[in-house]
Amino acid sequence: MKTDKRDARRLAKIFECGDYACCYVPDAERREGRQISRTLIGIQSDIVAVKNRIKMMLYFHGITVPFAEKSTWTPKYFRQLHELEVGEKILLSLGVLLDQLESLNLDT
Any residues with CB less than 8 A from the CB of 12 and at least 6 apart, and which? Predict the structure, then answer.
C-alpha cells in the first residue's frame, strides 16, 4: 500500500540514517512510461464501472436482456442495447452510458 504518510515516514528514516543510496528518482522517460500505464489502468477501471452501471440500471428497472448470454460486449450487443424497447427516459440514460462506454473503448 502506498500513501504519502507512509512514504514520508520512510524517507525521514532514510535521511536520519544518512543512507541516500536507496532513494531513487526515476528519469523523465520512466515517469512518462508509468503515466501511460496509470492512464490505461484508469480507463480500464472506468470501462468496467460503466458496464456495471448499464447492467445494474437494466436490472433495477426489471429489463431483461435475452441476448446477454455472454459477458462479452460485441458490436452486435451494443446495437441490441441501442435498439431496446424501453421508456424514453431509460433510453436516454442508456444512450448516455453507451456513448460514454464507446468513448472509453480504445479498440473501437
Answer: none
